[in-house]
Specification:
The chain has 245 residues and is of the alpha/beta class. It folds into two domains: 118 residues, 3-Layer(aba) Sandwich (Rossmann fold), CATH 3.40.50; 77 residues. The chain has twelve helices and five strands. It has a five-stranded parallel beta sheet with strand order 2-3-4-1-5, with helices on one face. It is globular. The two termini are 37 Å apart. It binds adenosine-5'-triphosphate and magnesium ion.
Length: 245
Amino acid sequence: MNYKPRLVTERLHRLLDHFPIVVISGARQVGKTTLAAHALPHWQSVVFDPSVDVGNARADPDLFLDNHPPPLVLDEIQFAPELVAALKRRVDQSGQPGQYVLTGSQQWSVLKTASESLAGRAVFVDLESFSLSEIGGAASAEHWLHRYLADPGGFAALPASGHCLTRTPYEQLWRGFLPEADGLHLDLVGEFHRAYVRTSASRAVTWMSPFGLGHTHTSVHAGGIASDRIRFRSLASVMSLPLGR
Ligand SMILES: Nc1ncnc2c1ncn2[C@@H]1O[C@H](COP(=O)(O)OP(=O)(O)OP(=O)(O)O)[C@@H](O)[C@H]1O
Ligand SMILES: [Mg+2]
């Protein structure tokens, strides 16, 4: 994989310097697992599974945490919700920062429960799909407003190429902003999106239907779709496309 650095990496490290638990949440396939693996290469990691009780975490969360000391990445935490209360007890005993990173998809009620019961102990990093500057490899943690305030004239004079587009806007629109689609051969991008819709978005429809409740385990969360819409609009503005609302 040709890893592209994520803008939130610095913030993730900074949060781990101060909080015992950081939760990386976000829609399916935005790069949560990959970010954790690259940003924290020396951390142990456990990936949970919907059908297998990995490491007996659900049956005996305290023993599981004894067997897996921090620093630890708990990936797909929604499949081991019993861990949340045990984690809370642990970090209450030792408030040492940088102990656990949890990842999960935002729509999961377990993450909502986690955020409530871990209040004051955990902070959230909401990961989104690639931004234009991440795609262009020009990831700068500096917010555009800071750059504008530092040099308003220079910022306003930036050409559209200042948005670091590495391909034509039309190709970018076709690819979208999910990391996997970014590196795919162009003729496979359509297949990728069809599969994504089948496995994620169509389940969202089932998830939202009263008949589907309890039968599905994933969905595209509204925030992910909304942020891609925002990216689409910013790309459209680079292209000077007239977009209706
Ligand atoms: N920063 C990156 N640079 C290049 N490729 C990436 C990057 N992040 C993710 N990818 C690719 O995108 C795909 C999805 O990444 P990943 O599995 O980390 O997403 P995820 O959010 O954990 O997905 P899921 O919700 O399904 O667990 C992988 O094939 C991965 O190789
Ligand atoms: Mg993952």
